[in-house]
Amino acid sequence: MSKENLKKLIERGSATAKGGFSNEKDIVKKFNDWKKDKDAQEWLKIMGYKLKEIEKIEARQITGSHKTDVQVEIKIYLKQGTGVENISVKLVSNPQGFNQIDKRWVDKYRELWNMPKEITDILKMFTGETKPKKPSPRDKRRIFLDELDLKKQKKIVSFFEKNKILIVNDILKGRDNFPAMWMLIYQKDINMWTLLPISLIMNFYGNGKVFITKQGSLKIHRIGMQRKGGDRGRPSANMLQFKINPCEIVNYILKNKDEKKETKN
């Protein structure tokens, strides 16, 4: 995609929803009713389709542990084959809130990213899956990364820095049979949707510095890594999870639009 086309896509990527929606099933319904649904028509245009050339659309919800929530198959008149668009859906109620983008046991990440034993052991103590070896930790259930000695902190940061592209790809796009191609963000409080290519999402959230936060967790630019917690103390609280605030990229785009308007005026 050229820079000019990407710029146009970003500029038209957000709009007030013509009809609100509350879950993935509603989005599937809107795509299947694309001839009448104005939101679905705009989404198809952003994806590069000409409405007059579309013969048939079949959308369905994808369940299970996949990055894609909604898959849309588009058949074009007089063309062999069908276009397939995989969409990751983020429904946002709180503009300051964070959405989980990936959650697994540390050993699953070890297999996925060929994680060294030392890094695996540290992350298991970070999540509380294994008891911390540090005497008198801030939390008796686990350790925080800033409680490690500087040598170990550097090793953690170095591992995520070296494997950043792979990690960001896996937690946002995925590499199974249903990799996400788009992210659809819907802000319920202002009834606004934003549809952007997953490559742009990955670049915005993951293309930056890896560092240990003041709170003792880790960030890959705008992606936070933390212990899952909650779950009323069940073992699943000790899983590792990654989170983003989907509104960050929306606010960034809207701010740039406003600045451009002011410059023109």
What are the defining features of this structure?
elongated; Trna Endonuclease, Chain: A, domain 1; six-stranded mixed sheet; 11 strands; alpha+beta; 24% strand; 36% helix; 2 domains; five-stranded antiparallel sheet; 9 helices; 265 residues
Compose a concise summary of this entry:
The chain is an alpha+beta fold and 265 residues long.
Plain-language structure description:
This protein has two domains: 3-92, Trna Endonuclease, Chain: A, domain 1 (3-Layer(aba) Sandwich), CATH 3.40.1350; 99-172 and 205-251, no CATH class. It is built from nine helices and eleven strands. The relative contact order is 0.15. Helix content is 36%, strand content 24%. The longest helix is centred in the C-terminal third of the chain and has 18 residues, at 247-264. The protein has helices at 3-11, 24-32, 38-46, 106-113, 117-127, 150-162, 164-173, 198-206, 247-264, and strands at 14-16, 54-61, 70-76, 82-92, 99-104, 182-187, 192-197, 210-212, 218-220, 223-227, 240-244. Strands 1-7-6-4-3-2 form a six-stranded mixed beta sheet, with helices on both faces. The protein has a five-stranded antiparallel beta sheet with strand order 5-11-10-9-8. With 265 residues, the chain is an alpha+beta fold. Helix 7 (164-173) crosses helix 8. The radius of gyration is 21 Å and the shape is elongated. The model has no long low-confidence stretch (mean pLDDT 89).
